[in-house]
Amino acid sequence: MREQKTSKQRGRRKAILVTVAVSLMVSMALPLTGYIAHETGLIHTAQAQESDEEAVNPRAEYWRAVRGGTEGYSAVSGQETGVLIQNGGQNWRAVRNGPVSFYGGSLIIAVLLVLAAKHIVRGRDKLESRTGRTITRWSAFERVMHWYVAISFIILAITGLSLIFGRAVLIPIMGKEGFAAWAALAKPVHDYLALPFAAGLTLLMLMWIGKNVPKSYDFQWLKSLGGAIGEGHPPAGFFNAGEKVFYWLIFVGGVAMTLSGVYLLFPNLETVRESMQFWHIVHSSSGLFLIAVALGHIYLGSIGTEGVLEGMVSGEIDEGFARQHHSLWYEEVKGGAAPAAEGEAAQGTSSAATT
Ligand code: HEM
């Protein structure tokens, strides 16, 4: 009896084992069936039949609609969440990596080359005479604001440049991982510094707007390129015409940078992808342009002009510098004339401290 049971059990076990083994073999062999069918021409026949019956992919219409920007349904609520693919992205990338990068990058390199050539050929604009007596040109607040804006601009420029040119310039130098680590820092720094910079720039612009109103004598300054053409220095007020041009370029560029930057920082501000792409092009072009312009300012405000930087550092400039570069302002300060017409020199006249 016991022996019978055992042989039945053995038989059942054998059957189970065979079933499992066969199932395993079949499941392993299943993927091969496609290959076998293909080799034996079965699939070819099936495909040929299919393409005979229907010349186009049955999903072709669907994907055409998706690529065309047709809106579908998405559980995520918000602007354009039902649009899976937005083809404008291709055009945006082509413009960003094409003309914007090429012309913007070339402009920056051209400015650097022109400044280097000027410095090598003509050297710095020297002080004709240093009197040893100084005049107050900048208040402490103005200097703090200037350096705050200047330093934040430089950080934004470096991080912004590395975001736009990083792939082409930094990856070959740092490698992909090095660049990824750098970009992971550069991006948030750029984003978080943008609004504090915009606030500082707004204050700086408002503070100096009165002194940057164009005057008739500014044309004379521009015609002689600040004395580069012809003899002597042309007359200038608190700001010369070159500085006024710089001011207005920064003003207009700053408005474009700030507006476009706000759109990019807050994409949910009723923004669709197309307008993000537009604002990105505005932001990157105006950023590259401003960097080129700022390079000229940084050169002229430091090694390009003798005696100018000490003013922005200590607040005081040599009288010789004031007479040479800002003759009309110097006369007003020395003569005590009311500076109302130039809207200038509140500190120049009232606290003009000669030492
Ligand atoms: C290392 C960088 C910089 C240096 C060495 C520098 C230097 C100077 C100096 C010396 C002045 C006084 C000029 C004078 O006495 O008439 C000045 C003025 C000024 N700076 Fe800068 N600066 C720098 C960066 C910047 C940046 C990045 C900005 C703006 C984005 C800026 C905006 C201005 C403005 C608006 C003025 C008023 C005069 C003008 O319109 O040219 N500066 N800077």
Characteristic terms for this protein:
single chain; 355 residues; mainly alpha; Fumarate Reductase Cytochrome B subunit; two-stranded antiparallel ribbon; 12 helices; 2% strand; disordered C terminus; binds protoporphyrin IX containing FE
Describe, in plain words, how this protein is organized in 3D.
With 355 residues, the chain is mostly helical. Among the domains are: 2-55; 88-139 and 209-350, Fumarate Reductase Cytochrome B subunit (Up-down Bundle), CATH 1.20.950. 70% of the residues lie in helices and 2% in strands. The chain contains twelve helices and two strands, in the order ααααβαααααβααα. It has helices at 2-39, 42-53, 60-67, 88-122, 140-208, 216-223, 241-265, 273-300, 309-314, 319-325, 327-335, 346-350, and strands spanning 134-136, 316-318. A two-stranded antiparallel ribbon has the order 1-2. α4 (88-122) packs parallel to α8, α7 (241-265) runs antiparallel to α8 (273-300) and α10 packs across α11 (327-335). The longest helix is centred in the middle third of the chain and has 69 residues, at 140-208. The chain is elongated, with a radius of gyration of 35 Å. Mean pLDDT is 84; it is low at 338-355. The structure holds protoporphyrin IX containing FE (HEM). The site of protoporphyrin IX containing FE has 21 residues, from α5, α7, α8 and α9.
